[in-house]
């Protein structure tokens, strides 16, 4: 039993020796045990009474979970224990997946980024997650180990609500995997916050675009929005406009308005619902234009 700091409840710290052992313990203690990785979210939520777990199961040292693996044909695999600063510093990620580095750099402070992980950010299922949009538009897939072995989970259906995912008791996310990005792509992430670092996003917008001769417009765009819905939001109508209609200033504005209409934000101390919707429109238009300037030249 660990005697916690003031404000934290007491809990037992479990150090399993394998994924199989960890999954079994978690499955045998539903509602009492949760996986523990970096702790940047779990400890805050325990302190505030949102998590009341008897056991923290440390899974950060299990079976290659701290590895970054890049294959020029297969793509990228980020182990669940890879922290944000390693994502920022990785030469392969900087060269092939710079959007991931850009998004990771907006997370909190340098000190917290030595503990915070991309996989932990996803499993926390915050609508304001900084790296979630990048993972969605880069078509990330989670490798999950459960009591029945390994399976994959698409991020498109992974999030069920704030703090809720498709993970079941016994499930441990082993890694997130990305295919190679589309040829000729460009992508941007913009986080609107009250200060430069350390704050949750009031609005987060991620835009990725690439040439595609099979699309009526000759291009396809992927868009993900943060802090404007209970789960990370993909504004499908906005994407369809950019796929099916010529890429013109008027249609970019039209797509940005469609993104605004798709979101359903709340009002809180960081910003009103109306303000968030307007910022979605403005930032989506800004990023589509920036991406379009890069992918549209020379075609």
Task: Give a short summary of the structure.
With 299 residues, this protein is of the alpha+beta class.
Biggest sheet details = 5 strands, antiparallel
**CATH architecture name of the largest domain:** 2-Layer Sandwich
What portion of residues is helical?
A: 25-40%
> How many individual helices?
12
* Name of the CATH first level of the largest domain: Alpha Beta
Tell the overall outline.
globular
CA-based gyration radius:
20 Å
Order of helices and strands: EHEHEEEHHHHHHEEHEEEEEEHHH
Distance between the termini: 64 Å
Secondary-structure class: alpha+beta
User: Spatial order of the strands in the main sheet?
Assistant: 4-5-10-6-7
Portion in beta strands = 15-25%
The stretches of 5 or more residues where confidence is low (pLDDT under 50) are none
Overall pLDDT level: 92
Number of domains: 3
- Beta strands, count: 13
Q: What does the model show?
A:
- The chain folds into 3 domains: 12-58, Uridine Diphospho-n-acetylenolpyruvylglucosamine Reductase, domain 2, CATH 3.30.43.10; 68-178, Uridine Diphospho-n-acetylenolpyruvylglucosamine Reductase, domain 3, CATH 3.30.465; 186-295, Enolase-like, domain 1, CATH 3.30.390.50.
- 34% of the residues lie in helices and 23% in strands.
- It is built from 12 helices and 13 strands.
- It has helices at residues 19-28, 42-47, 84-89, 91-96, 98-104, 110-113, 118-124, 132-137, 155-158, 236-244, 249-262, 273-295; strands at residues 12-14, 33-36, 55-58, 68-71, 75-79, 141-146, 149-154, 159-161, 164-165, 172-178, 186-192, 203-211, 219-226.
- A 5-stranded antiparallel β-sheet has the order 4-5-10-6-7.
- Helix 10 packs antiparallel against helix 11 (249-262) and helix 11 packs antiparallel against helix 12.
- The protein is globular.
